[in-house]
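User: Hi! I'm a student and our assignment asks us to look at how structure tokens line up with a sequence. Could you show me two examples?

Assistant: Happy to help. In each example below, the sequence comes first and the structure tokens follow. Example one:
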Amino acid sequence: MTTEVQLCNLALSQLGVTEQIASVGTGTLAEVTATGLKVDLCNQWYAYSRDEFLKAYPWRFARKFATLALADDGTGEIWRFEWANAYTYPTDCLQLRRFVNDLGGGSWGYGEPYNASEFAGADLSWRYVVRVHDGDKVILTDVSEVDADMEYTEKVTDLDRWDGNPSAVTSLMWLLGHRLAPGLSLGRDLSIHCWQMYQQEVRAARALDGNEDNPHPAGRDGGSYIAARGSD
């Protein structure tokens, strides 16, 4: 089990910092009572780096499915001319991935380029945009309430969830080291080295993450994707 303080200490050790942060309680940074530059920098950059890492890829350990809550049906709203509904943005969501439907086969919305010609004539009601409406973050879309099932990347703060992919933990360590080095006045070269190690380790983490996935092909149930291509 890796804790926040342990991960920060690992990052510091890779930077050649021998004086570590003392771990107390369950090892969260919020429990650390010590003060100083190292603690301040870790508090400043840890959560930022963690969320940056999670958002960059649909990690298996952070995937979550949820039915969205309708926030507004568009009646009387200016955006009703472009979108049918507004759904509440999940509070634990870092990155929306896709509406669960027959177009994706388990992988739609994971950063693959959208080929307009390939999907010509397909049902595009699954498209969406993220906006602020009445002061709240919402998802504007034409998707109906009965179909409003979304897959997204959850803000996973419990590192126990990460331990199934050791390279993910190591990647976060290097990314955090990259962020900490300038503040500790350790030089640009060391910061660049940490970034290069992060890029190397994150490739290994993605490969490991994908080893347990075997997604359905697009249009597996004869849905709108197949219909768009004229198949029977």
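Example two works the same way, sequence first and then tokens:
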Amino acid sequence: MSRYPAYRPRRLRRTEALRRLVRETRVVAEQLVQPLFVVPGRGVERPIDSMPGIAQQSVDRIADEGRRLADVGVPAVLLFGVPERKDARGSGATDPDGIVPRALRALREAAPSLVLMTDVCLCEYTDHGHCGIVRDGDVDNDPTLDLLAAEALAHARAGADLVAPSDMMDGRVGAIRRALDGAGFAHLPIMAYAAKFASAFYGPFRDAAESTPQFGDRRSYQMDPPNAEEALREVKLDIDEGADIVMVKPALPYLDIVRRVKDEFGYPVAAYHVSGEYAMVKAAAARGWLDERRVVDESLTAIRRAGADVIITYFAKDVARDLGRR
């Protein structure tokens, strides 16, 4: 009689076909969202040094990129706008003909099948780089809510399919929900950056969105990284205020939060695989230290396995293209 147990796990690992047959967690293109950075001008394609393969693009180039993304199977984009001018109140954010509304209209025409998501925040639009109105050196929460609601409405009227507030002001989901409902957009979903941590992994994004704070930091409104119970409270607040999807950001350093949010609430969960996570993989792969494709596959699979239903990642186009070839 064999001294081994009847069940031998290696039997189902022997070939790639067998491994695929019993694979528990899969990443599919339908779950991916590609962030895009739209800037003023025409014919602009400005590579971001800290994010190889990603560029700031003018509205016409964004439309072309939208077609390419749709062609390879990416279902959705998340738009970030850099305005022509910045001021203390972030006035460009609420302009109905601002940079994001123009991009929305161009993308709708160029790639009708794309789900058009928009980041709702003021940091790209303010001259101080913070996510709201600054008074006495800090962001003043309640007056900021009206501006965020107006920004969300401008995006809705320009054709957004979903708005995504990322500012981390208290009460902003409720303010946006009321504004949308009151203007005839009760059907428009909100994807709340519900548990957004004050992370060191955002550095390259601030190059792309030109949103580096001109003084201080964002730790008075973004979450303290050690706090998990607080993250659950934040998520519950956003759900109670009307969020349809709740997000954890960043993704990989906070997989425990993704899992807990999914288990606790059962809501659709998004995870943002952020710029620093992207840049580290690109830098290591460029030096031959890592196999980029395998590391990306493993990373996104981990995010899915933790419970994320939606993955926002700068690798979305590459992954969707690879998935289409398999």
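Here is something you could point out in your write-up. Residues 25-325 form a domain with the TIM Barrel fold (CATH 3.20.20.70).
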